């Protein structure tokens, strides 16, 4: 039934004056209307206020027209015809819409909803069970599908498809809304289709305008689904494997998902290999490596045999596409292969790789055979010489600069993990490392008992010496390696410890590095060291070294940071990330890192040598810099130290009042601090108002006695 004209006094959906009631689910003419489901009550003007097409569930439709005593309108006009109900009956009918379809009676055909293509009624519960012979599969296709879209998960009206002969089978999918040409396959010889409808569609959308959102205005044609039983449909290809979880993706012709069980491997082939691949099929292979807080994997695949009809690079007849990013879509593939040449070995960019085999235009062919392996991926760029091990090699001829990081950064790194990063510069280059992020967890004890980073320098004897050890959340300062020498960075995490980790930049530098500094041999006196470019701000890419040697092995070198202002802060969460001064009191031990603002900080060498190293990264902005006084000192016995000229039991130069250091007499009253530890006696005792000019001080070197 279809209405061609309609004008009945009233306002839908209440229709308080005149109205037309339509009953399309009448099973018996004698059944009282109150016990018969009402399709709808209609009034107003225009056929757009009515269902587009009405089809009864039986051989009866009842129209009940009512008008009150007041106004009248044109009324309605429509057309009807009787249709054969055979299109709504298939297989063995149990009741209104419960059917069993057996392949022995009907190999292919169509299933339509009870009133298709008219508006389907409320509160239906229909089931269609398809039963094939052993060895057969079932294919269904949505030729037309239009159900009310009530939101996510289809809460009102839906079609539910199960892979099996009942609702206990594995669910393939729940469908509502509009679909066309969707194809679904059973895994075996059973398939179940359930169709459910409800009322309350207006409430489900929280409609404010009841007239504008009348229930019957929604697209509710139902469905027309074709079905076919066959033992010729392609069979999914399963791999021979070492313990992976292999799963045919329910509802597909031959799609397979292989899920890793940690560093596992196996063999993957085309359907029917080594027999011919069936034509007109599309098979997707999803290879999923592990991805969690402890393990991240990539997928590697190697082809052993390959024959897919077609000619590279177009592959019009058929092809095997490989997506290394793990996504599907038109043009989303990274590589496409056909012909008989073996594809190269391939590795995914992330934890998933997708292969798509398409034979829709091809003749028969052998297909392919391949081996796959899930390999541990630490989320670190660089060359890994050993698969599955967290070891990465960076050679200057391959990488001039780049980044490296803790495993899985910016996610938390796994516990109980060790990673090595090896850097090999050219003979004329130095390595510069600067940290952009650093969080190994707060620590109160020594670094060796915490998550840490070890930085080692390869020496000319072939051994590694420790540059420094870092832990906590304070950023390491920029690090420069020796000329042409290998540097190794080792990351260690403890059991049960996980934090944000680190990210650092590496650069192999030659001319870009601004070098300064010198080797200084003392003759008993002292001197002044200033930051590069002083009094201007220091610049980025600076690398300065001063190595000061005392005149005698029993003497020491004292440095005093008279003025020091370098960007950064020596505290947790900050650090000397862009500029650092390292003080090596012992050349065989890691240096102390300084930045920020320092006043009258002093350091005394352990032996006759002291080294200062100033490094800035590419991100350094520059600051005032520093002025550092160095002095050669001889440590006298504080109980017997004196200033006697004979040197017996005393100092031949000047003995500092507080520190008891013996310094050269000429350093007294020179305008610079030379005693250290807030000891100003060298600038106070006997100096008066006159001061030795600094220019004269720099031109004269004095010799102090090595011992009394």
UniProtKB/TrEMBL annotation:
Keyword Repeat attributed: yes
Source domain of life: Eukaryota
Span of domain CUB: 1-83, 97-230, 254-375, 390-509, 516-633
Q: Name one Pfam family in it.
A: CUB
Keywords attached to this Swiss-Prot or TrEMBL record, sorted alphabetically, are: Disulfide bond, Repeat
InterPro entries cross-referenced by the UniProt entry = CUB_dom, LDrepeatLR_classA_rpt, Sperma_CUB_dom_sf
Does the keyword Disulfide bond belong to this entry? yes
Q: What is this protein called?
A: CUB domain-containing protein
Organism of origin is Mytilus galloprovincialis (Mediterranean mussel)
List the lineage, top down.
Eukaryota, Metazoa, Spiralia, Lophotrochozoa, Mollusca
